[in-house]
Design goal:
about 375 residues; alpha/beta; Dihydrodipicolinate Reductase, domain 2; 2 domains; 11 helices; about 35% helix; globular; binds alpha-L-sorbopyranose
Length: about 375
C-alpha cells in the first residue's frame, strides 16, 4: 500500500450518541481501516448525556475518551470528523455547529425532523463544502452490496425502462401494545413515526436505485396503538405506526411505499421490487446477501427469477471481506458507509447521499404528511 494520504496524521473522530446507532457506527469506525484502504482514523471521543454510561460505552466500543458536552468536543483541534448518532431533534443544531467549526459531518437518517431544519442544514453544508468540509447522511442501506449491485444493473439498462417499484419496510418491534413509550413515539422528539424512521429508507432507496426524483405524492398515515405506558403513567402516542404512499418519479416510474412498525412477524424486512420493460428484480433485507433477477432477454419459456448470491469479489464492497461465497451482515453496511465517507474526504469530493439528497427525502416525507392530513390529495413537489 502506498499513497500520500497514508503518511498523514490519523483523522480524529467524535461520535455523538452511544445507543443503538452509536453502537453500530462505533464498530464501523473500529473496523473500517482494517478491511478497506482508507485514511487512518482514531476514535477519539464518544459523547453522551450520562457521564457514567457514556464512559462505559466508550471503553466497550473502542473510544479513547468520553465526554458529555458536544459543544466542547466539536471545538477540539484533534477532532476532524463528527458523527451524529443522536436522535433527530438534535441533528440540525449539532450538524450546523460542527460544519461551522470546520468538521466533516456524518449524520444519521432522517436528515432532521422538519423541512425548516433540513433547509438550514443544507445551507450550512453548502457553505462548508466551499471550504472543503464534507457532509453526508447515513442512509446505510445504499451500502448493502445487493442493493448497490441492483443499482448497477438498473443503470446498465438490464431492466430497460423502469415502470413500477414496490418498496415496503415492515418491522414489529411496536406490535405489543404494552411496549413502552420512547422518544421515537413522541412527535416533538422524533418528528414522525414509521414515516421518518423507516419510510425515509424506502424513499431514499427508490430514488437511489432509479437515479430519479419523486415529483408527486399521495399518502396515508395511521396510528394503531394510541397510548402506551410511559415513565409516569399512560402517554399518548403522537406519531404514526404505519404509513403508505404512492410516488410519481420524474422519469415516468410509479412507486408504492408501505411501512409499519407493528407488522407482526416482520422483523426488519425492507423489501424492494423493481419492474422494468426488460427485466425485474427483488430484494429483502432479511436475506441481504441475495438478489433475485429476472432477465427479460431470456426466452419467455425459460424466464423466471434467478437468485444471485451477492458474495463475489466482483460485487460492490464484498472483495474486502471474506473469500467468495461467505456472507456478510447488517453491520457491514455501516463500515461500507464510513469507507465511502472517508474516501470522499480523502479525495476532496462531495460524498453521497449529500444533505441535499437528505432534504429531497424530507420533501417527500412532508408531502406524505400533507397528503395524509388532506385525505387523498395528490401533492406536487
Ligand atoms: C428502528 O425502526 C430502526 O432502528 C431504524 O431507526 C433504523 O434506521 C433501521 O435501520 C432499523 O430500524
Amino acid at each position: 500500500m502506498s499513497g500520500a494520504h497514508e503518511q498523514k496524521a490519523p483523522l480524529g473522530v467524535a461520535a455523538i450518541g452511544y445507543a443503538f446507532m452509536g453502537k453500530a457506527h462505533s464498530q464501523a469506525w473500529r473496523n473500517v481501516a482494517a478491511y478497506f484502504d482508507v485514511p487512518a482514523v482514531e476514535q477519539r471521543v464518544l459523547v453522551g448525556r450520562d457521564s457514567e454510561q457514556v464512559a462505559e460505552a466508550a471503553a466497550r466500543y473502542g473510544w479513547a475518551e468520553s465526554a458529555t458536552d458536544w459543544r466542547e468536543v466539536i471545538a477540539r483541534d484533534d477532532v476532524q470528523i463528527v458523527d451524529i448518532c443522536a436522535p433527530g431533534w438534535l441533528h440540525a443544531e449539532i450538524a450546523i455547529a460542527a460544519l461551522e467549526a470546520g468538521k466533516h459531518v456524518l449524520v444519521e437518517k432522517p436528515l432532521a425532523n422538519s423541512m425548516a431544519e433540513s433547509e438550514r442544514m443544507v445551507a450550512a453544508a453548502q457553505a462548508a463544502r466551499a471550504r472543503g468540509v464534507q457532509s453526508m447522511v447515513g442512509f446505510n442501506y445504499r451500502r448493502v452490496p445487493a442493493l448497490a449491485f441492483a443499482k448497477q444493473l438498473i443503470a446498465d439498462g438490464r431492466l430497460g425502462a423502469v415502470r413500477e417499484v414496490r418498496a415496503s419496510y415492515l418491522q414489529d418491534w411496536l406490535a405489543d401494545e404494552d411496549s413502552p413509550m420512547t422518544w421515537r413515539l413522541r412527535k416533538e422528539t422524533a418528528g414522525s413515526g414509521a414515516l421518518g424512521d423507516i419510510a425515509s429508507h424506502a424513499i431514499d432507496q427508490v430514488q437511489f436505485l432509479l437515479g430519479d426524483t419523486v415529483t408527486e405524492v399521495s399518502g396515508r398515515l395511521h396510528t394503531f396503538v394510541g397510548q402506551r405506558p410511559g415513565p409516569s403513567g399512560v402517554e399518548d402516542v403522537t406519531v404514526d405506526d404505519a404509513a403508505w404512499a404512492t410516488l410519481s418519479l420524474a422519469g415516468g416510474a410509479v412507486a408504492s411505499v408501505e411501512v409499519s412498525r407493528v407488522a407482526l412477524g416482520r422483523k426488519n424486512s425492507l423489501r424492494i421490487e423493481v419492474y422494468g420493460s426488460a427485466g425485474a428484480l427483488t430484494f429483502d433485507l432479511e436475506r441481504l446477501n441475495e438478489l433475485e433477477f429476472l432477465d427479460g432477454a431470456v426466452p419467455v419459456a425459460e424466464q423466471g427469477f434467478r437468485r444471485i448470491v451477492v458474495t463475489e469479489p466482483e460485487h460492490p464492497y464484498v472483495g474486502a471481506w471474506w473469500p467468495q461465497g461467505h456472507v456478510i451482515g447488517w453491520e457491514h453496511t455501516f463500515t461500507h458507509q464510513i469507507r465511502d465517507f472517508l474516501l470522499a474526504i480523502r479525495d476532496g469530493a462531495a460524498p453521497s447521499p449529500s444533505f441535499e439528497e437528505g432534504l429531497q427525502v424530507q420533501r417527500v416525507l412532508a408531502a406524505v404528511e400533507e397528503s395524509a392530513a388532506a385525505k387523498s390529495t395528490i401533492v406536487q413537489l
